[in-house]
Structures are given as C-alpha cells and as structure tokens.
Amino acid sequence: MDGGKKGGRRVKERISGGPPRSNRQEPDRVNRPLTDYRVYVLSVRQKWSCLLLGGVGLFGIGFVFFHSVTISMLLSGGTFFLPKHLSKYLLRRRREKLGLHFKQALYSLSSSLAAGRSVENGFREAIADLKLLYPDGSNDLIAELAIICTRLEYGQPIEEALQDFSRRAGIEDISNFADVFTTSKRTGGDLVEIVRRTSAIISEKLEISQEIAVMIAQKRFEAKAMLAAPVLFLMFMDLTSPDYMRPLHSGVGLLISAVALLIFVACSWLILKIMDIRI
Q: For residues 93 and 46, is the Cβ–Cβ distance under 8 A?
C-alpha cells in the first residue's frame, strides 16, 4: 500500500515539474526532462547516416573536380560539419509543424469554448480532434496537450502549464497566446473571444507564409538545378571527352580546379541564403 502511494507521488512529481518543497533535497530519479523545441539533438542513427552520406557525397564531388583519391579524402573530412546543419534544418521543420498543429488545436479549442465546455475539457477535445487528423499520434503538440491535461488532473493551474510549454517551444505565437490567456484567466476576460481572435491571427500568418512558399517553390527547384548543373556537366565531360579534361587533373590544372570549386561553394552558399526566406 505504501509502495503504491510512493509510486503515485513520483508520477505526480514528474508531471508537475518537481517534488514538493519539503522533499526537494531528495534526488528525483524518475524525473525526465520535457522536450525543448529550441534545440534538436540528432539520434545516433541520424548522425551516422549524415556522416556516411555526406562523406560519400563530398568524396564524389572532390573526385569529379580533381580525380585524386587523396584530395577527395581530404574534402570528405568536411562531413563532420554537416550534422550541425542537418540539426538546424530538422529543428526548423519541427518548429514549423508545431506552429501549424497549434493553429489547428486553437480552432478546436475555440469551438469547444463556444459550445460551453470548460477550458480543461476544451484541451482534451483538442487532443481528440488532432488524433483524427493524425491517426498515428506521432505529433509533438498531441504529446504537449496530453502533458497539460495530466498536469491539470494533478491540480496544477493551467496558466503554469501553458507558460512552461511556451518557454520550451520558443515560438512567438504560442508565447503570445500563453501570455494573453494567463492575463485573461486571472482578470476574468472573455476566453472564447481571445482564443477565436488568436486562432484567426495565427491562421492569417500561416496562410501568408504558405502563399510565399508556393510562390518561391519554382525558384527553389531552379536553385537546386543550378547547384547540380556544374557537377553533372563535369561528369558528362569526363565520360565523353576524358582527354580534353585530363589537363585539369594534374599540375596547374589542379589549382584551376581548386579555384573553380571554391567559386562553386561560394555561389552555392549565396543561393541558399537568398532562398532562405522566413516569415
């Protein structure tokens, strides 16, 4: 019986963010940190896949330009910088999905409040609605809403749960909603109108972002084609006219190839920066 009570206390401590003040000196072995959406930590599989594929790609580019195994091996050493860029890319995609799912959850929450449900039941209904849209359940926002509902069951104020989520999310829309919701909850504001207007504003921002993405989708494809064209052209020339390309693979030709590769890298970086449009 005592063991069951201790286990219940431990689960409550993990959900509420820590043990009671009287027990804070005791180590909480079951406490597990919640997800921080401001950083992205690659898994071991993702990291090794990035290193392997990046190494093969850089080695191939080096061999196309220089036809030297030694130089190509040196260039493939740059693959150790690739996991950092992959982490930034995956983090951006994760945060974009989190913002989109948050907008959908606000629609559901607004409908529930307008129908007369309580805030707590509104969040539970939002989980059910998101599970209809994403049956697999592999959704960061579904997990976060479940954490908020569990905290509510253990008596934690919803304002604290929302503020904790907004801090970990680091997304402006979520932070603004949490601040306005907290202020309205404490001062007795119209939650239905607040949620409705917030969801409308976030929806407008996302629609503008999606329109811009559609407008530049063709330009993104053209940019990728431009990046691949020099490498494909060199491969074509090596296959069709190897004698013509041989002077570039020895002596002064190696220096010319190195300068050409540096210009190619600089142009690639510039194109990617131009196409990196964020709303």
A: no
Can you tell me the distance from the alpha carbon of 177 to that of 25, in angstroms, rounded to the nearest whole number? 35
- Residue 24 phi, psi dihedral angles, 5° rounding: -70, -20
pLDDT digits (tens, 9 = 90+) for 30-57: 345 788 999 999 999 999 999 999 999 9
Q: Could you tell me if 82 and 47 are in contact, meaning their C-beta atoms sit under 8 angstroms apart? A: no
Task: Count Cα neighbours of 85 within 13 Å in the Cβ-side half-sphere.
Answer: 10
Domain boundaries, the chain: 44-275
Q: Do 88 and 96 meet the contact criterion of CB atoms below 8 Å apart? A: no
* pLDDT per residue as tens digits for the range 72-86: 999 988 888 899 999
DSSP alpha helix (H) spans, the chain: 2-16, 44-66, 69-76, 82-114, 119-133, 140-153, 158-169, 172-187, 191-240, 242-245, 252-275
Match 């829309």 to its residue by tokens: 173
